[in-house]
Amino acid sequence: YIPTLDEVKALIESTRIRGNNEKQFEFNSVRDRAILSFLAVTGCRQSIIRELRISMIEYINNGIAFNVDGEYTKSGKPQRIVIGNKARKYFIEWLNLRAKKGIKSELVFTSIRGSQLTRSNVKSILDKAVSKVGLNVEGKQFSPHNIRNFVATYLVQKEVNPILIKEVCHWSQN
After folding, report:
1. Is 37 in contact with 109 (CB distance < 8 Å)?
2. Which end of the chain is less congested by CB atoms within 10 angstroms, N or C?
3. Of 14-23, 53-62, 79-88, which one has max mean pLDDT?
């Protein structure tokens, strides 16, 4: 299942809706919005979300770049991931809240206790958004990889050069 642009926007905005008995709403809302928007503009693998480090951040004109070491990538090669606009805004909101909560972890995206997110944590963030939106995923699992597929499909529809798409999605150059 490949979501539409409107569905991806709705998933990101769903983080503003409080669920039943949702604990730590402000923390989860801001963090989850930053994660979902990061996935939506970068098409990165969920493992990158879990492994991003504060030391990888580079502030650039109207954006933020993440210089990801090869040890954290599927290919083993370093990656440069850039975000701007709303994703940048949501990311800055997250960094500010993180500081306010006293999270000292070198990991960018953490639990409220500062521990590393697991694959199931990232999946749960997405599942919660899908549920809040009422997204019909045609009886299939919906994972961060569906967002990755959205990014590639969106870029193809916008007639972006295939070489640039490979670069953005960090596909091997075979």
Report:
1. no
2. C
3. 53-62
The tokens 């850039």 sit on which residue?
82
* DSSP per residue, 79-139: EEEEEEHHHHHHHHHHHHHHHHTT---SBSSB-TTSPBPPHHHHHHHHHHHHHHHT---TT
DSSP 17: S
Strand blocks (E) in 12-88 = 57-60, 63-68, 79-84
Q: Which of 170, 151, 171, 121 is nearest to 2 (CA)?
A: 151
Rounded to the nearest 10 degrees, what angle do helices 5-13 and 25-42 cross at?
A: 160
Beta-bridge mates of residue 117: none
Query: For the whole model, what pTM was predicted?
Result: 0.89
* Burial of 33 (C-beta count, 10 Å sphere; 0-12/13-18/19+): buried
Position 174 scores a pLDDT of 47
Structure tokens that stand for 3 in this block: 């979501």
